Amino acid sequence: MTSDHDFSVIVKEFAERVYNHAYRMLGSRENAEEATQDVFLKIHKGLINFRGDAQISTWIWRITTNVCLTRLANKTKNTFPVEYDPINEIADDNRTANPEKIFLCREDHEELARSINKLSPKEAAAITLFYLEDMNYTEISDILEIPMGSVATVLHRGREKLRALILKSEGIKL
Amino acid sequence: MTCENFQQELNLLLDKGSAKALPDEMQNHLSTCSHCNGYRNSILSLHEQLSLIPRAKPSKGLMNQLLSIETTVNEIPALLSWKYDVKRALIFLSPIVLIFLSNYLPTLVGTLINLGILTAGLVFILTTILKPMFFSRY
Ligand SMILES: [Zn+2]
Question: If contacts are CB pairs under 8 Å, which of residues 54-113 in chain A contact chain B?
Answer without folding.
Answer: 92, 95, 97-100, 102-104, 106, 109-110, 112-113
